[in-house]
């Protein structure tokens, strides 16, 4: 029997140990200008579309360099076991990221996790080392996100009215997803957001914690 839960997980800092998007711009962009853009986004002054346009403009990176950055990355140590357990319980995991699909795919390939569904932004290379962000979901997004996680969960719920949804995340880009999900797992900035807005959440540090809590809630057996 198909289980009625569906898991949506953030990528940077949640499934991946690091914020790979941030590393990309720290390593290959102008760090000060990028930090200004990130701070304006965090303060709600600009959308993540504008933040990425500004960050990409400062960056010079080749496809090979980006791939090298990706293969250096590690995922959460307990994610693979969590994924296998979800699989044996008939629960699908969708990655929702306001980062870029290109490095997410490379990192997942390293861990043989290539069949996970990814909803993220795209990155295009121009003239070898200029990069330009593309936002396939921006028309469905709120005015803060480039790829609004709230849209994807809302859309899923519309198509699966009896299913229950879980959002797992660590950052401000997970806010809209958390507001739509039936259950929230939060750490870092998302946790602060939940506390501030009186949202019920389960705190976690890694996917071993998520596994333990899902088992105690009888979501996973
Ligand atoms: Mg994150
Ligand atoms: Zn949003």
Description:
α2 (31-42) runs antiparallel to α3, α4 packs across α6 (101-110) and α5 (79-88) packs parallel to α10. The chain has helices at 20-28, 31-42, 48-58, 63-71, 79-88, 101-110, 149-159, 175-180, 188-196, 207-216; strands at residues 5-9, 92-100, 117-126, 130-134, 164-169, 183-186, 202-203. The chain has one domain (5-216): Rossmann fold, CATH 3.40.50.1000. The model has no long low-confidence stretch (mean pLDDT 96). A hairpin with a 3-residue loop joins β3 and β4 (130-134). It has a 7-stranded mixed β-sheet, with helices on both faces. Helix content is 44%, strand content 19%. The longest helix is centred in the N-terminal third of the chain and has 12 residues, at 31-42. The chain is globular. It is α/β, with parallel strands linked by helices and 221 residues long. Magnesium ion binds at residues 10, 12-14, 169-171. Zinc ion binds next to loops.
């Amino acid at each position: 029997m198909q289980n009625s839960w569906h898991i949506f997980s953030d990528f940077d800092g949640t499934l991946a140990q690091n914020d790979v998007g941030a590393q990309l711009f720290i390593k290959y962009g102008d760090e000060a200008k990028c930090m200004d853009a990130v701070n304006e986004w965090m303060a709600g002054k600009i959308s993540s579309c504008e933040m990425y346009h500004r960050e990409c403009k400062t960056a010079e990176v080749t496809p090979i360099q980006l791939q090298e950055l990706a293969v250096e990355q590690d995922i959460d140590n307990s994610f693979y076991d969590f994924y296998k357990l979800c699989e044996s319980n008939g629960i699908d995991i969708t990655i929702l990221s306001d980062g870029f699909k290109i490095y997410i795919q490379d990192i997942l390939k390293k861990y043989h996790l290539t069949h996970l569904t990814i909803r993220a932004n795209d990155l295009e290379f121009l003239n070898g080392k200029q990069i330009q962000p593309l936002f396939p979901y921006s028309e469905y997004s709120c005015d803060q996100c480039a790829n609004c996680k709230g849209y994807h969960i809302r859309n899923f719920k519309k198509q699966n009215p009896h299913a229950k949804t879980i959002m797992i995340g660590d950052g401000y880009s997970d806010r809209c997803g958390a507001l739509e999900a039936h259950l929230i797992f939060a750490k870092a900035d998302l946790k602060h957001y939940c506390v501030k807005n009186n949202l019920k959440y389960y705190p976690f540090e890694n996917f071993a914690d998520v596994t333990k809590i899902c088992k105690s809630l009888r979501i996973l057996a």
